Amino acid sequence: MHLLWFRRDLRLTDNEIVTIATADGAEVLPFFIIDPWFYTWADVGKKRVRFLFESLENLNFNLQKLGSRLYLFEGNSTDIVPELTKQLTDLRYKPKLFFNRDVQVKYGISRDKTIVDFYKRLNLDYHIGLNNFLQSQDKRDEWFSEYYNYQRQPQHPTPQTINTPQVTLNLPQLTFKELKHKYHSFWAGEKIYFSGGETEAQAKLDSFLQKRYYGYHWKLSRPMLSQLGATSHLSPHLTFGTISTRTVYQSTKIRAEKLKTQPKAEFSLKAFRDRLRWHDSFTQRLYFYPEIAYTNRYPEFDSLYTPSELSPAKQELFQAWLEGMTGFPLVDASMRQLQTMGWMNFRMRAMCATFLTINCGISWHHGARHYMNYLVDGDLAINNWQWQMQAGATNPLSDTFRIYNPSKN
Ligand SMILES: Cc1cc2nc3c(=O)[nH]c(=O)nc-3n(C[C@H](O)[C@H](O)[C@H](O)COP(=O)(O)OP(=O)(O)OC[C@H]3O[C@@H](n4cnc5c(N)ncnc54)[C@H](O)[C@@H]3O)c2cc1C
User: Fold this and answer.
1) Taking a C-beta distance cutoff of 8 angstroms, is the pair 148, 246 a contact?
2) Which residues fall within 8 angstroms of residue 144, CB to CB, at 6 or more apart?
3) 310 DSSP 8-state letter
4) What is the CATH number of the domain that holds 239?
5) Same domain (yes/no): 147, 283
6) Residue from 213, 377, 387 whose mutation best tests the ligand 1 pocket (most atoms within 8 A of CB)
7) What is the pLDDT of residues 131-167, one digit of tens each?
8) Higher model confidence: residue 201 or residue 39?
9) Within this chain, do residues 15 and 141 fall inside the same structural domain, yes or no?
């Protein structure tokens, strides 16, 4: 019995563990664990949780088309996976566990280690795959070429059918109806700007490559144009893995080939592909240096940028910033956009970050946490490093230092 554990790779297309676990008609049990770690933070972004739940619903729908379904367990992953394994062993199965490596947060890293140790103790097999390109050893000089080698390789094929047997398990499980009912606060009827799921991800990519990409390289800095769709809006999908960067990369290359007589169009798509690479390079950095999510790149900044509690005067500034009440219209509009949509374009994210860190003198730690709570695409690897970059803490010897002027912008 192959246990197919989905986490931030909620897709069937170009997914290493899906392809390998389902090969040769093996019996497969696909599952996701609704782990309280994710949704019980006091200030977790509701839009992000909703996006996750919608993605799960769509994954279940797509699995059903292949004759399978998604088991939804509820509880701590480090309790559920061992218990599931034990129950299957009692039923005389020999489970093998498949999951893709996740590098986001300390919780996930220690969770995976606990589970791998458990499998080793029981002498059971496991397979850890790759969600997107990730180098296993720090070979910085080769990163670029290895990245492109990976992106150009054929995608992992999607199975035609998945053989999922009926097994009776004594574990806390939810149906999708129960999920909606129990967590209704996340589904509550606000306007939705980003819908989850692999089907939606593919549609977003198609519509971007069809027409929306045109002028991408200059429109991406305009908040209104990018909100209306001049950028891809794929970021939450890449965060939850409803599409792989390789699928996006290869589709973009095919489109660029067709447009090769139009240099401007090709230029736009090249600028887009560069950003896809940035996505993976941020993940890579966090994988090798997990401490950079929370500590300053250079200790010289430790007295300036600290996560410690803010003084009452700074707290007042911080509050005005996060509520969009600073009196600087573009900052305020952007911060309200973040709360309403769970998204901002790159330039406004950067501008609000320099405004908080440099103009208000408030550490990047506070701003990064607020973004992580509200962004639908909240990705620790990109967000926290971007915050350090915008705060000027990653490259202090550079000749230039960028502060986005909220009036001139
Ligand atoms: C302070 C700050 C915090 C940020 N936090 C996040 C975050 O939590 N999650 C996140 O996905 N992006 C983050 N970004 C990067 C960027 O703003 C978003 O990726 C982008 O706005 C998402 O919109 P899109 O999908 O339409 O992007 P597109 O312009 O269509 O880009 C395509 C993809 O490339 C990647 N990408 C684009 N720009 C960047 C970038 N500058 N760095 C790394 N990858 C990039 C994203 O995966 C994006 O989906 C942050 C930027 C700043 C300045």
Assistant:
1) no
2) none
3) P
4) 1.25.40.80
5) no
6) 377
7) 999 998 888 899 999 999 999 999 999 999 999 999 9
8) 201
9) yes
Is 402 a domain residue?
no
Best residue for ligand 1 mutational test, from 151, 195, 275, 355 (most atoms within 8 Å of Cβ): 275
In this structure, the strands spanning 71-74 and 173-174 are antiparallel
Same domain flag for 25 and 55 = yes
Q: How far apart are CA 8 and CA 59, in angstroms?
A: 12
Determine the average pLDDT of the residues in 90-100: 96
Q: In the 3-class helix/strand/coil scheme, how is 168-197 assigned residue by residue?
A: CCCCCEECHHHHHHHCHHHHCCCCCCCCCC
d(CA 34, CA 5): 12
299 and 270 co-located in one domain: no
- Number of domains within the chain: 3
Kindly list the protein residues whose Cβ atom lies closer than 6 A to any atom of ligand 1.
220, 231-235, 238-239, 275-276, 278-279, 282, 345-346, 349-350, 353, 371, 375, 377-379, 382-383, 386-387, 390
User: Nearest residue CA, atom 17 of ligand 1?
Assistant: 346
Residue nearest to atom 37 of ligand 1 (CA): 275
- Residue range(s) defining the domain that contains residue 355: 292-390
Query: In the chain, what is the straight-line distance between the N-terminal and C-terminal CA atoms, in Å?
Result: 57
Query: Does residue 408 fall inside a structural domain?
Result: no
**Ligand 1 centroid to 310 CA: how many Å?**
28
Atom of ligand 1 nearest to the CA of 345: 21
Residues 6+ apart with CB under 8 A from 198: 10, 11, 12, 13, 55, 58, 59, 62, 242, 243
